[in-house]
Amino acid sequence: MMRGNNIPSKKKKAIPPTKELLNYLEEHGRLDKMPIQYSDMLRYMASVPLLDTQGNDTLWETVYYDQSEGDEVHNALCEIYALLKTEGDLKVIEHLSVARIDYCTFGNTKPFRIRIINKINDNYDHFYIKRIDASRIYGLELEGILSPNRLTYFVYDQTIIEEHVAGVPGDDFMKKHLDVSKFEQIRIAKEFIKFNERCFIRLLGDMRAYNYIVDITPDIEGSQYRIRAIDFDQQSYEGRKNFYLPQYFKENNPIIYLGIQHLNAEAVRQYQLEERSLIARRARSSKARINKLLNCMISDRISTDIKVRQLRKELSVHHHNAIFDTCKTMGELVLANIKLVLQKEFIQSIIEIK
Q1: pTM of the predicted protein model
Q2: In-domain check, residue 250
């Protein structure tokens, strides 16, 4: 169903990770010492707005550092890229240089985006340096466990380092890539239904078009599409159920229209069941890891009591199930949602298409 504005009720503050969460990250190889931290990146001396190829403001700023520390910053960033891509093999650094550093003041983690150039062939890649936030860490981990996607990231002190996820930003995709054959439009609508399911089951919110990318892969006939979240700041924070359903964001209406045009209720239910089965399989195959993560999440305070109570009530009504009634934290709500998926007899209301 298409709806209007579905924006966060209040700008979310970054939440520091608990000792239990840091222990979990260390156990699973996510903690690593870095040569530079987020706070060091803030010492730039000047910035200019970054415009796109049409001259529009991208909401990013290209930043510049004083020459006295610029070389030190650039060397440290090349070391971090080596850690992300070659497990810290510093031999590759001699071929790397920093082409640009961009800073985004829009968003909770206010990221720096680093463009790295390979001097041998002028090929470039990106990675991100962000303020640490427990919500984002939980979101990244749940993405890696329950979705078909993997994303390399590391945590050090007050900093998160993330690799770049290649793909077409959702808003650009809807402007430029929906005028395709009926066959491919059905594939796009199908993938959105699956993405909608993945977000709702693990309670990942705020999936407006600019918070995900679309990976387009040429296939034997036509193309395959994979929608991937790239913003995890709103993992299990808001109290409104619809905030966790991408179908309710007006920015996603162009894709919703494709579902209305080409899919009936039976097809929608089939795609939901397919994705739910895959999520259940992933949860069972990573049972020990997800249990440890959810234990951290259950004992953590990543939202307010008011929002927890609101979401608990709305999920209970939506699912017609009392499993949520005793939940006191967002972590318990995520666990209850996943438990429902693991029940083969569980039947969820299909996405509304009319």
Answers
A1: 0.91
A2: yes
